[in-house]
Amino acid sequence: MLPRDSGTMVKRRLDYRPPAFLIPSIHLEVDLDPAATRVTSVIEFRRNPNAAREDRTSALILDGEQQDDVSIELDGAPVPLEAFTLNERALTIRVVPDAGRLTVRSRLAPAKNFALEGLYVSSGVFCTQCEPEGFRRITY
Q: What's the pTM?
């Protein structure tokens, strides 16, 4: 059991809801550099017909952490600044079509990742630790 003040959020199976979007494919391109790795992800998405009614018009929310120089394209066109929110925990695209292709480019610094989650460098070797939530430190 977790202490109440641990700050860790408990996730219960009973709280499960089908996701608002399905991701049939994702293409990743990673240009490794200890100080400035460039990551490009191309995400094919579509709304989930089995999502809860209130989620059928929701924003597209992608978890992500510790990424810089983020640029976003939707179906090949830059997403205007007023159409998305980017904070330390997530990328939120407020208005999205029912299906499309989202391209996200970002930069991260594996040599400065001392949490040993996501992509990091240890003894000069690039390493990854993506479970349970480390992938959000690589891309959105």
A: 0.87
